[in-house]
Amino acid sequence: MTHELTKETYESLAEFRYQLKKFLHFSDSEARKVGVTPQQHQLLLAIKGFPGRDTATPRELAERLFISHNACVGLIDRCSQLGLVTRISNPDDGRSVLIKLTVDGEEILQRLSEIHLEEIARIGFLQVKQNVPD
Fold first, then answer.
1. Over the stretch 52-78, which tens digit does the pLDDT of each residue have?
2. Taking all residues of the chain, what is their mean pLDDT, rounded to a whole number?
3. What is the tens place of the pLDDT at every residue in 17-46?
């Protein structure tokens, strides 16, 4: 079933894509300013933001980042060399490891996340609940 799309619909889709690209450009730039690559930032966020836990397997991370398992392992290796992540044994599966943020990784991710939340609030894209003490 095909619907005729209006000029307004195309403009809305184009604007949405533009705003996404603009935010991603902002995100990449901010990551570089704190000394990590955009991919390293994405890895840190994927680990900390993994549903239900603060660790993830390389395979889970590869899926979240839309990269191959081998590329993900290389990214994890580079982040490990920088002291941003560490490997721990997986208590549920001795054949795999879990990736966890280090204190340095946590600090960088928190700084970047605060910057990103400010930008998101500035552009009015999303209301995010934060745990702020009264």
1. 999 999 999 999 999 999 999 999 999
2. 92
3. 999 999 999 999 999 999 999 999 999 999
- Count Cβ atoms below 10 Å from residue 115 Cβ, excluding itself: 16
Angle (nearest 5°) at CA 102 between 21 and 121? 35
Confirm whether 133 is domain-assigned.
Answer: no
- Domain-embedded: residue 132: no
Domain ranges, residue 88: 9-123
- At CB < 8 A and 24+ separation, what contacts does 22-27 make? 23/119, 23/120, 23/123, 23/125, 26/119, 27/116
Whole-structure pTM value? 0.88
Among 123, 130, 104, 122, smallest CA distance to 36 is for 104
- Number of folded domains in the chain? 1
Q: What is the CATH number of the domain that holds 81?
A: 1.10.10.10
Instruction: Give the percent of the chain with pLDDT over 70.
Output: 92
User: Does residue 130 form part of some domain?
Assistant: no
Structure tokens at 130: 């934060």
Does residue 2 belong to any structural domain of this protein?
no
